[in-house]
Structures are given as C-alpha cells and as structure tokens.
Backbone:
C-alpha cells in the first residue's frame, strides 16, 4: 500500500510549507485564534463550553514564554500524541490529541515547522474555567485509561489509496469524530456510535449524523459531500451551520479536490447508524 500521509524532511521552508497544509487539514486556526475578540492569529482565547466547564484554546505561536517557542520536537510529539505537556501535566481532551495521536510523525513535525515559522505573540493563555473535581489534572491519567487509544493510523489493505487517504484525514488530521461522535459520561467518544452525530459543547448545537443511515447522509452522493466540504452548501442549496461553516472556511475548503473526494469516499463507506441525537442533515 502506498504511503498515505503527506509530509517530508522537516527543518526547512519546504517543511513549513507542507506543515501549512497539515495546519489547514486540522482546522487549527478555528480554535486557536479568537476572531470575534480580535485576537492575534494563533494566540489563543477561543472558548469551548462543555458539561465539565469552559476550556480556552492556548497560545500556539512560537513565543518562548507564552507559546510553544521552547518546545523540542519530542515535546511537541508527546503533546500531540500522548496529551502530555512539556512539564508533565496531562492535557484535557478538549485538545483533540485523541485523534492527532493517529497522525504520522512526519506530518506532525511538519506542522511544528509551520507553527514555528509564524509570528510570536506575547500573550498569556487564558486559564480554563473548570470546577472541582475536574480541575484536578492528575485524574486525567484515569480518564485516559478508559478513553484514550494511543495507536497510530494504519492503512486498510482491502481498500484503495483514495479510501485510505480519506480515512487518515477523517480519523487523524481533521479529527471529524471529535464533534460528530457522541460522548460517554466521562466525556470520551462512544466508539459504538462513531460519526452518528453528537451534541456540541454544552449541548446548544448538534453535529449531525454522517453515516449512511437515512437520518444521516444516505441520500448524499460523494460529489454532494465533496461540494459541501468545499463551499459549505448542501445539495438542497442550504448553507451549513455556524460551526461547520468555520470548518469549511479554515479547513476543508483549503484542501485539494482530491482530498475532499477522499474524505467523501470514506464517509460514504461508514456503516449506517441511527442518529445519536435528534438533528437535521448538515
């Protein structure tokens, strides 16, 4: 099977250029830039409301004091793949390391090269607003024990290159399941209802069912999905909702046509499952 992840030798401008594509695939700007508040790019601040409290995306510019400027390659990989900070603290799963752990080392280090090529912003990250007992970070090792699978993505030899590329994008880089899969009482994704839809954040909005069920995307063609990922418009001519429109603007709309088609190919292959929550098609 051909190598599906993209990337290459890091440490030069070419690596940063490749990292920009990984950055876009992950939609990093959506969370780490406070557009509404006028924040500088990647300096953090976007709030994510959840049943466990409100989390704020941190500064990921190369500022040495308030960002990630002092991080080594290994510290960056450990954060992205294990959810552990350079000082040993566990990250909350509001940071989707549970998906990024599947990404290739090459892609992640290219992403780091891109981030380190961006302007440093001296702005302290806003502390999370999380009450007891969720404020005790050491308990996250227990959460990981039941909800975190650190295994890497592997290609399926029974599928073609396009499907495998779509699988890698959806499961690792674009981490679609983090929003479109319901969560258990501990806040971990329910793998038995993979991509069957979920309530977002504190439950104010819904990420719809993306499986081939009649309540999901059964009537959508691969072309319909790819078109929506490009222009944020459904087959009926409706504009996708606020959250998904941001995903299209910062992520899927910046991918190649081939990658959007690969994502559509993978999504159309998902087993049909009833919607985990009541919602309309995206």
Residues:
């Amino acid at each position: 099977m051909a190598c599906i992840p993209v990337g290459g030798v890091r440490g030069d401008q070419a690596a940063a250029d490749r990292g920009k594509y990984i950055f876009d695939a992950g939609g990093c700007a959506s969370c780490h830039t406070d557009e509404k508040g006028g924040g500088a790019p990647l300096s953090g601040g976007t709030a994510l409301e959840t049943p466990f409290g409100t989390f704020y995306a941190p500064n990921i510019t190369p500022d040495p004091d308030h960002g990630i400027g002092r991080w080594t390659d290994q510290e960056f990989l450990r954060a992205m793949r294990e959810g552990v900070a350079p000082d040993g603290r566990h990250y909350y799963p509001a940071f989707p390391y549970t998906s990024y752990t599947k990404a290739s080392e090459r892609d992640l280090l290219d992403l780091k090269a891109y981030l380190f090529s961006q302007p440093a912003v001296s702005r302290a990250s806003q502390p999370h607003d999380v009450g007891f007992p969720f404020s005790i970070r050491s308990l996250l090792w227990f959460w990981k024990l039941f909800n975190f699978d650190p295994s890497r993505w592997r290609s399926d030899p029974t599928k073609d290159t396009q499907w495998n590329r779509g699988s890698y994008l959806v499961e690792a880089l674009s981490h679609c399941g983090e929003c479109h899969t319901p969560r258990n009482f501990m806040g971990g994704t329910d793998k038995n209802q993979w991509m069957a839809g979920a309530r977002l954040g504190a439950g104010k909005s819904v990420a719809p069912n993306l499986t081939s069920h009649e309540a999901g995307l059964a009537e959508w063609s691969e072309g319909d999905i790819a078109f929506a990922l490009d222009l944020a418009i459904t087959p009926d001519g409706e504009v996708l909702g606020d959250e998904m429109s941001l995903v299209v603007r910062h992520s899927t709309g910046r991918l190649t046509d081939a990658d959007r088609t690969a994502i559509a190919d993978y999504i159309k292959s998902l087993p049909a499952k009833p919607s985990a929550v009541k919602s309309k098609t995206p």
